Amino acid sequence: MQKDFLRKLGLKAKNPGTWTGQEHLSGSARSLQSHSPVDGELIGSVTITTREQYEQVILRAQEAFLVWRQMPAPKRGEIVRQYGEVLREYKDPLGRLVSYEMGKSLQEGWGEVQEMIDICDFAVGLSRQLYGLSMHSERPGHRMYEQWHPLGIVGIISAFNFPVAVWSWNSMLALVCGDVCVWKASEKTPLCAIACQNLFQKVLKANNLPEGISSVVNGDYKVGEYLTKDARVPLVSATGSTRMGKIVGRTVAERLGRSLLELGGNNAIIITPSADLKIVLTGAVFGAVGTAGQRCTSTRRLIIHESQYEEVKKVLASAYKQLRIGDPLDPNIHVGPLIDTAAVENYQHAISEVKKSGGKFVVEGGVLSGPGYESGCYVKPCIAEAKNDWAIVQHETFAPILYLLKYKDIEEAIAIQNGVPQGLSSAIMTNNLREAERFLSVAGSDCGIANVNIGTSGAEIGGAFGGEKETGGGRESGSDSWKAYMRRQTNTINYSETIPLAQGIKFDL
Ligand code: NAD
């Protein structure tokens, strides 16, 4: 395979412990090897951050914060703007690295970098809009307002499936807010993090700004724990499984820190009698098999009206026959590999659980082998008829397995949609205004994202992104998500010549 993109990103080395992410750190004894799920080849090695190195990173970040917080927000926005420009320049090689290290299609790899560029643009505008409110004081000659200050060090823990975009959603906002960032990327995609870090350092260097404004630490959950247990890190934004979120949430809460949690989903599309089947087909198939079912917003359940059930089943089965599975860097391929062989085992386990529960497969699954599939990470997307209350259906399996569920009336459909522990993304396919509004009403979908005539998968950066229940309640990216990265201060100024007390209290001396 042609891997010129690694050279373009300055990542052409395989020696253990080659990359640390920080110029001031030298390699440690232990390293993390990154193998591509595409062909199983070793891409490169990254140094695992030791406790001592972590201390150095935090000290540098603390020093950098003192400089960065004094810079006017629009000037910080200018640095983020320059990073957006660098990303435009490196969109092709970075997108290819995302595709090769994570296994998503090249279109999606480029799409992820485009999302980074978009969030940079969003953050630049935001840097002039970090508004506080002003309130009328109850006391004469007083002015009251609120302002927003940065928190300090923001710890970012990210998942493998969006190896670059999720970091940028957090960091670009946190940076214009005046915070500095320390990123613990997924141990499954460490080179993507090193590439983003190197590109960001280019911008810091060109502007003579301290390296500690943005840092990476490498390793598995143990390195993540350095951040979650560290009281010098006031906010930990963690993206990953619900299992991880429960541990991170508890650990950060124990020290009364703040956490922003973006966890697993179990997303469904309701298909009503009036649904446009062309829209259903694209929305459902892309939602279920895109990124090989490894998006937090992947469609896992289709809740189909009984009158449409057989028709939808038939159309889906024939669409699945046309899916091409293989090298995600080939533009003709629809479905790439799962991240690793452990993910393949989870997929196989889920299939056997469905069978044990009595589920029938409309499209059979299976692991692919032979030429082109040597990494052992390629699986067939499959479709099973199931029941919502089965334990396996209630659980998020991070693989292309789609469950078909049947409903009689809209109330039942909404109850099924909401009847899982997760609450990330949801959708209804309908041309019936009453049904659409019913789905969006207070008694409708309980998810953070609810769409009409769009699938569950993917979201625009302009909206606040996140979900309820076991998805963790966090919101990132657009709207007013920036408030999570700042502390609010209420200020009251007395410009009168007396000091009246609030609530009319008298205290005469
Ligand atoms: P994961 O939970 O295995 O790991 C995520 C990150 O958390 C990794 O960096 C890992 O090292 C770290 N981590 C794990 N345990 C930790 C601990 N105890 N303390 C500190 N850090 C810890 O998840 P994954 O397999 O990389 O990603 C898939 C999951 O992420 C899916 O559940 C998916 O739905 C979820 N996800 C959610 C969103 C969202 O926005 N809601 C976005 C992307 C992915």
Notes on the structure:
This protein folds into two domains: about 1-35 and about 45-265 and about 470-490, Aldehyde Dehydrogenase, Chain A, domain 1; about 265-460, Aldehyde Dehydrogenase, Chain A, domain 2, CATH 3.40.309.10. It has 15 helices and 21 strands. The protein is about 35% helix and about 20% strand. Strand 16, helix 15 and strand 17 (about 450) form a beta-alpha-beta unit. The protein has about 500 residues and is of the alpha/beta class. About 50% of the residues are buried. Helix 3 (about 75-90) crosses helix 7. Strands 12-13-14-11-10-16-17 form a seven-stranded mixed sheet, sandwiched between helices. The protein has a five-stranded parallel sheet with strand order 7-6-5-8-9, sandwiched between helices. The structure holds nicotinamide-adenine-dinucleotide (NAD).
Highlighted features:
binds nicotinamide-adenine-dinucleotide; 15 helices; Aldehyde Dehydrogenase, Chain A, domain 1; Aldehyde Dehydrogenase, Chain A, domain 2; globular; 7-stranded mixed β-sheet; alpha/beta; 5-stranded parallel β-sheet; 509 residues
